[in-house]
TrEMBL record:
It comes from the Bacteria. InterPro entries: DUF4190 (IPR025241). Residues 1-21 have a biased composition (Pro residues). It comes from Kribbella sandramycini. This is DUF4190 domain-containing protein.
C-alpha cells in the first residue's frame, strides 16, 4: 500500500528581523566632563570651633598681700602688693584688686600704728629736774624709765598706754629695768616672750633685791606691728600680786 503523504503545512513564517536598539540609561559622565547640576546638600556639616581660651590664673603675690595685710603684717604685705601690681600685666594674671586691697589695708595699718605710737597718751611725761614724774600722767609704754611708778596694769593682749604716777604715793608697780633687742626680722611671739622673761629675770637678779611674797615680775614687750616699725624695747616691772 502506498501511503499518501501528509498535506503540506502552512508555509513557515519568517522570524521578525532585528529591532532597532532601545536606548540604555546614560552612563555617568567621565571625569573632567561637566556633569549635571545638583542641588545644595540637605544640611551643613559639623562646625569646627577653636580651642577654648584658658582662664587666667590669680597672682599668688596679690593673694598673699591681702591675707598678710588683714593679719597686720604691714611691711611684707605692702611690698608684695606693689610687686604683684608690677608683675600682673606682664604675666597676664588676675588679682589686681587683691593687690590694691592689700596695699590700702597695709597703708591704713601703718598710719594707725604710727598714730598710736606717736600720741597714745600725749607724748613724753613731764619730769622734774631729777627726772622724776611728780604728777599723774598718761604716756606710751616706751616712755617709761627705770624708777618710774605706774598705776595698776591690767594684763591684756596689748598695752598701748600706761598711767605714770608719783612713786611717793600708792602705785601699781615700779620699773626696775629697761632694755632693747638688736635689730632684725620679727622672731615670732614665742621668741619675744621668752626674751622678755629671761631678760627681766636676769636683770632682777642683778638688782640683788629680794622679791616679796606679795610681789611679782611683770614685763612689757613689743608686738609684731610695733617691731616692724622699729620698736625693740622691753620694760620690766615689779608689781603687787
Amino acid at each position: 500500500m502506498s501511503q499518501t503523504p501528509p498535506p503540506a503545512g502552512p508555509p513557515d513564517q519568517p522570524y521578525p528581523g532585528p529591532q532597532p536598539g532601545q536606548p540604555y540609561a546614560g552612563m555617568p559622565p567621565l571625569a573632567g566632563n561637566p556633569g549635571p547640576d545638583y542641588g545644595p546638600p540637605y544640611g551643613a556639616g559639623p562646625q569646627h570651633w577653636g580651642a577654648p581660651v584658658p582662664q587666667r590664673k590669680y597672682s599668688l603675690l596679690a593673694i598673699f598681700s591681702l591675707v598678710l595685710a588683714i593679719l597686720g603684717t604691714t611691711v611684707i604685705a605692702l611690698v608684695m602688693g606693689i610687686a604683684a601690681l608690677l608683675r600682673i600685666p606682664s604675666r597676664n594674671q588676675r588679682g589686681k584688686g587683691f593687690a590694691i586691697a592689700g596695699i590700702v589695708i597695709s597703708s591704713l595699718w601703718i598710719v594707725a600704728i604710727a598714730i598710736a605710737v606717736a600720741i597714745p597718751g600725749g607724748g613724753e611725761p613731764t619730769r622734774d629736774a631729777g627726772g622724776q614724774v611728780t604728777t599723774t600722767q598718761t604716756a606710751r609704754p616706751t616712755a617709761l624709765r627705770v624708777g618710774d611708778c605706774v598705776a595698776e596694769i591690767i594684763e591684756v593682749t596689748e598695752v598701748n598706754k600706761v598711767e605714770i604716777v608719783p612713786c611717793s604715793g600708792p602705785n601699781g608697780g615700779e620699773v626696775y629695768a629697761v632694755f632693747e633687742q638688736p635689730a632684725g626680722d620679727w622672731p615670732g611671739t614665742a621668741a619675744v616672750v621668752a626674751a622678755a622673761e629671761k631678760g627681766c629675770t636676769d636683770r632682777w637678779i642683778q638688782t640683788k633685791r629680794k622679791l616679796a611674797p606679795t610681789s611679782d615680775i611683770l614685763y612689757l614687750h613689743p608686738i609684731e606691728s610695733g617691731w616692724r616699725l622699729g620698736d625693740r624695747g622691753f620694760t620690766c616691772l615689779v608689781v603687787p600680786k
